[in-house]
Structures are given as structure tokens and as C-alpha cells.
Amino acid sequence: MPRSARYSTTHQQLKEQALALFLEKGYEQTGIQEITERAGVAVGSFYRHFSCKEEIFVEIWDEYAANNIRQTLEKVSHIDNLKAFLDILMSENEKFAQDPITAALYSTQTSLISSHRVESFPQIAEWSMRYRIEIQRQILRHIPLQSEQEAVTQANIIHCLLNSYAMRYADRLQRFTYHARPFRQILYAMLQLDEDSEI
């Protein structure tokens, strides 16, 4: 049965106000009552939409991060050069890392997962798989001597490296340091690409 327009409006309003409060005060310091007051609804209304604060966070972060991956894949959909493809992935990861929402919420996502308060982010999982498949497809297309197993492994490694590259700003525990030029050179070297080649 389709949701009513009013239900959808309230649902979205709760998410918008929760996000605003998470950015202002932090996730742990934000209470459900504050969210409902900002949204102009009763506390009971919150529980018609979300079972707990973790659930609203999951929906906010899942939608935000998955949308970023989707937009990145759209930007590379017509790229016919492996180095240009990798450069765009790096650039988009950089933008994602520097977004204030990423900086504010990434550590919360990590904390909720590690403490088992949240089991998964389904949209992120789906779009991350598409992301890895696209990297694999590009490798096989431009480096045809690679085996399927090699391409899968390289795609997974590149995905992990790009995640780490992006999260160097947001991950308060790791504090990785990367520099763009040597990072790019390492990606090229892993795929045996010459910096000056046309591939």
C-alpha cells in the first residue's frame, strides 16, 4: 500500500532535521525529542517512521553515501581511458572526503558498525558492488591480458585504497596521510600503466 504524501513529507522532515542536528551537535548528543521538536511533530510520530535513532542515521548516511557512488559512476560512464577513469575516481573521492557531511558523520558510521548497533547500510553495499564491478570492467577492457581473478582482485584493492584515500580526512582513528601524485603513481604501477601512455 503506497505511503501517503503526508507520511512522506513527515519522514523527509524528520531526516532533514536529524541531519541538521547531527551536524550541529553530533550524533551522540542529539536526542529524538530534539529531532521531533525541530520537525514540528510529536515524539510518537518519530516511532511511526523509525524504530530508534540508529535507524534514522542509517537511512541518512546510506542515502547520502550511496548517492555519491551513483553520481561517480555516472561521471565515468563514458570514459574510454583507464588513467582518466582512475583520475576521476580519485577526484570524486576527494570531493566526498571534504564534504562537511562526510567529515561529521563518517566516524559515527564506523562506531555504529564496530559496536554492532547497526548491521548494514544496504544501499551503500549495492552501489559499492557496482563500483567494484565497473573498476573490474575497465581493467579487463584496457588490459586484456589480465585474468578475471586478477581483475577482480585489483578492483577490490583499488576500491579499498580509494576509500582509505578519501577517508584520510574523516577517519579520526587512522589519520592516514596520502599525497595525490604518489598515490596516483601507485595505482598506475599496480596496473602496470605508464604515466605517459595513452591507455
Structural account:
With 199 residues, the chain is mainly alpha-helical. The protein has two domains: 1-50, Homeodomain-like (Arc Repressor Mutant, subunit A, Orthogonal Bundle), CATH 1.10.10.60; 52-191, Tetracycline Repressor, domain 2 (Orthogonal Bundle), CATH 1.10.357. It is built from nine helices and no strands. The protein has helices spanning 5-25, 32-39, 43-49, 53-76, 82-98, 100-114, 122-142, 148-166, 180-190. Helix 1 (5-25) crosses helix 2 (32-39) and helix 5 (82-98) crosses helix 9 (180-190). This is TetR family transcriptional regulator. Pfam families: TetR_N. GO terms for molecular function: DNA binding.
SSE diagram, text form:
Blueprint: H1 5-25, H2 32-39, H3 43-49, H4 53-76, H5 82-98, H6 100-114, H7 122-142, H8 148-166, H9 180-190
Helix pairs in contact: 1-2, 1-4, 4-5, 4-6, 4-7, 5-8, 5-9, 7-8
